[in-house]
Amino acid sequence: MLSALAHPMQRRFDFATRTPRAVAPAGWIRRDDVAMGTAIHVELWADDARAGEAAVQAVFDEMHRIDRAWSPHQPVSELSRINREAGRRAVPLSEEGFTLIERALAFSALTDGAFDISYAAVGRLYDYREGRRPDAATLAAARTLVGWRGLELDRRAKTLRFAREGMCIDFGGFAKGHAVDNAAALLARRGVRHAYVSAGGDSRVIGDRRGRPWGVAIRDPRSADAGEAVAVLPLEDTAISTSGDYERCFVDAGERVHHLIDPATGASAGRARSVTVLGPDGLSCEALSKALFVRGPAAGLALLAQLPGLDAVIVDAEGALHVSPGLQNLSN
Description:
The protein has 332 residues and is an alpha+beta fold. Helix content is 29%, strand content 25%. It is globular.
């Protein structure tokens, strides 16, 4: 308890009343970064700008964490360790690694191998920057190392072993979808109700854009202008993944060579120019956008019709547009 001054010469202190920290002004926050070999964009509405900035940074931190764990280019990543050791012994997996591989195998079974993370045995032979692809003999040898049934996942021990030494895997088919899912969950836990998160061709929209839908454009895969769109979709609370033959590609002997590999042939899939899948989670959308690209419009849309809550927009190899029934009234 404070008391009166005991002596007239005693120094007096005045204690200021403590006031709450001022809330920074509300508004939209937009930030960009690079991770997983692609551009990261976050846009969100924050009632408190400081809290919004912290939420954006948390998203970027999570994206970089996933990159460190699952990049094939980082020797210390879990993915690199799996690829080094699983041909010789069963490799213990993290909880995240086990879940990702388990889901990958489920998508392989669902798509009859059109989605297959073991495609990496041939995928690593292409150099899109230098415009090089493997010769026929090299490709044929590598194809013997592709096949999702050779990924021996022990669900009890949570280990992975390759059936053949020389096999390898790559999460490029759905790591970004996983990342935007984690980002969306992170933002929801922080109370963010209006946001857009993208990692390359994969994105999540949270809520609406404060009274109107988010307008998500599907790029024209043959336009020199990246802003040209074949469709613009008004969306809320949706995951979106686009796989296109225009991002990592080169032309060799008149043929477009791109990174969307058909696991059955080891060559670039040729039935589509781009595929966009929309649904409740980014990981499923990204895996299925790759599988539908390989399968083509007819087989791809037939598969999607069996999966409630998912839709697609496909630009086929001739440039014609194919839209699943659930989107026919949305595209414009």
